[in-house]
Amino acid sequence: MSNTNQESEVVFKNVGKMATFKKTQTVILKDCSFTVEAGKLNVLIGPSGCGKTTVINLIAGYERPDLGRVLINGRPISGPSWERLVVFQETALFPWLTCYDNVMFGPLARGVMSKESAHQETVKLLTKVGLEDFRDKYPSQLSGGMQRRAELARALINQPEVMLMDEPFRGLDAMTRKLMQEYYLKLFEETGATHVFVTSELEEAIILADNLLVMTNKPSKIKKVIEVALPRPRDWSMASSKRYLDIKAEALELLHEEAVKASVASGKLDVDLASGYKKPE
Amino acid sequence: MANQTASVESQFLRQISKKFLNWSLLRQIMSFVLFIGLWSIIVVAVDYFHQIPTPKAVFLALFELPITVVLINILKSFFRVLAGFFLGIVIGFPIGVAIGYSRVLKNLIFPAFEMIRPIPPIAWIPLTVLFFVHIESQIIFLTFYGAFFPIVYNTMGGIAEVDIRLPRAAMSFGLERKLMLWKVILPAAMPQIFTGMRLAMGITWILVVAAEMMANKGGMGYYVWYNHTVMDYPHVVLGMGIIGLCGAICSIGINFVGNYFTRWRRIF
Q1: Do A94 and B184 touch (CB under 8 A)?
Q2: B130: Cβ contacts below 8 Å, ≥ 6 apart
Q3: Of the spans A49-53, B33-37, B46-50, B130-134, which averages the highest pLDDT?
Q4: Which residue of B has its CA nearest to A155?
Q5: A105–B173 CB contact, under 8 Å
Q6: In whole angstroms, what separates CA A10 from the centre of its chain?
Q7: I want to staple B92 with a disulfide (CB 3.0 to 4.6 A). Which of A175, B132, B152, B256 is the partner?
């Protein structure tokens, strides 16, 4: 296993994806093309239920595109791999394993590290995410913020080329969320690799992102890619900079357009199209 | 001012009583006393209940308990329960795993199971005579049968309800597919698998008693039934109590094992 994170580029080429929900077929992605830039923090933002998680599942290899291609470094993605790891919404730690064993899971499952070096790496990472005193606790004994950090450690030990963050801070209280964002920024700025971060919070999106990928409603595609170009290392003081406010205004306008379209399409002023929304022909 | 001192005093008293008098525990002990009391009163007060033994009669019967006979009967019942229960695990668990894991096998097996399952196990008693020559095998078959469905259904349900993100995460980490069941699916399904085993244990005791009452082959069910035929009702009630105790011991045992294997759920 190499110690330098290879920087990988993910490309969506005219991807189409359908889903069947309660016998209703829904087009989630239609003719969706974009590039996830290598070594950058790419944030996907869009109205809820627009298929952000589908994008994550496609990159992770849990789902396959019905049309088009999803490429990593020019090769099509054929299935799940430790090179592309997901940090899920809420926690998906293995509840029957301690914090320590959860982090050890990846290296031991693949048998790529000796137990001793996996142990050392695990202890190092748990210290890095501030959980060294909680290594023998089960996930149910950890707070929400700790669970997310344990999950970060569990993914990072595998040195993935692409980190897929699927609304990882959803459900955390405002303070913890802010701390986690700062934490995550630091981790990203230290470790590199290509990150895809999904969120529906605009402010979080801007402060984290190198590239802000604004999605449309279903059937979704990328409406616009905004280059954030705020300096790194980032911190929340930049939230009052002109650049930040300009981006916020632009992104809000794009998202607002989508919200209006959605309410017109569904015939009611309800932006949440998480289920049962049929594509108007 | 006077009010304040009074409240301080009463607070002090409350603290003392909290320390030395555990009201909650006392009330729970009262529950037993009330039960025995009601039993004594009803037996005497209701005219046609006069054949029902009083708590006192049952207590006195305890001293003339034929200990060796009862012990042998207890062992017989225990053997049948545990034999049926473990057969239920050995046969039911793999089937539950198979139909929880494979849609094809579920399609093939599940509908037939759904048809058979609503039949109360006791209704199988006449047919068991055709399946097995030995009465002992007939009884064990029944207890097995009682354990079988709860184990199959809960194992299947537990596996079907595993959060899809867990195997997905494991797949991403590079876990071999053949290890997925052992390393991820079964641990995740363990709580519900043990729920099935707890239910199974309860049902095997119901069935062993019913079977023994019919079979004339010893066991605590037979002990109760025999004392009924000779109209020794204090010993009937004693036998019932012993059966209850045995069942409780078994469920404590299975809870202990279950809690050990799912200890990650209970620690806070």
Answers
A1: yes
A2: none
A3: B33-37
A4: B173
A5: yes
A6: 13
A7: B152
- On whether the A1-83+163-281 domain is CATH 3.40.50.300, my answer is yes
For A99, A100, A102, A104, A133, the CA distances from A122, given in Å and listed in that order, are: 10, 7, 9, 6, 13
pTM of the model: 0.80
Q: Are A275 and A21 in contact (CB under 8 A)?
A: yes
- Cα–Cα distance between A33 and A166 in angstroms, integer? 19
Residue A94 in contact with partner chain B when CB distance is under 8 A: yes
The answer, for A141 touching chain B at a CB cutoff of 8 Å, is: yes
Domain ranges of chain B: 57-260
Say which CATH topology domain B57-260 has: MetI-like fold (1.10.3720)
A139 half-sphere exposure, CB direction, 13 A CA radius: 18
Q: B189 near B159, Cβ under 8 Å?
A: yes
Rounded average pLDDT over A202-222 = 87
CB contact under 8 A, A92 and B268: no
Residues carrying CATH 3.40.50.300, chain A: 1-83+163-281
Are the beta carbons of A61 and A78 closer than 8 angstroms?
yes
The yes-or-no verdict on residue B43 having pLDDT over 50 is yes
Could you say which of B169, B174, B184 has the minimum Cβ distance to residue A86?
Answer: B169
Q: Do B175 and A109 touch (CB under 8 A)?
A: yes
Chain B residue numbers with beta carbons less than 8 Å from the beta carbon of A140 are 264-265, 267-268
Sign of CA dihedral B215, B218, B219, B221: positive
Residue recorded with tokens 């039993």: B39
Q: Residue for token digits 């996930």?
A: A139
CA distance B174 to chain A (A): 5
- Between CA B43 and CA B54, with CA B48 as vertex, the angle to 5 degrees is 25
Instruction: State yes or no: pLDDT of A20 exceeds 50.
Output: yes
Look up residue B68 and give its two tokens: 């060796």
The yes-or-no verdict on residue B91 having pLDDT over 50 is: yes
Q: Please report the ipTM that was assigned to this predicted complex.
A: 0.80
Q: Which residues on adjacent β-strands are paired with residue B231?
A: none
C-alpha–C-alpha distance, residues B47 and B224, integer Å: 24
Give the chain B residue nearest A89 (alpha carbons).
B165
CA distance A246 to chain B (A): 37
Verify cis geometry, omega within 30 degrees of 0, for the bond prior to A233: yes
Question: Cα(A46)–Cα(A54) distance, rounded to whole angstroms?
Answer: 12
Vertex A255, ends A192 and A89: CA angle to 5°?
50
Closest to A85 (Cβ–Cβ): which among B172, B188, B264? B172
Put simply, the answer to whether B165 touches A88 (Cβ < 8 Å) is yes
A85 part of contact set with chain B, CB < 8 Å: yes
Inter-chain touch A138–B264, beta carbons under 8 Å: yes
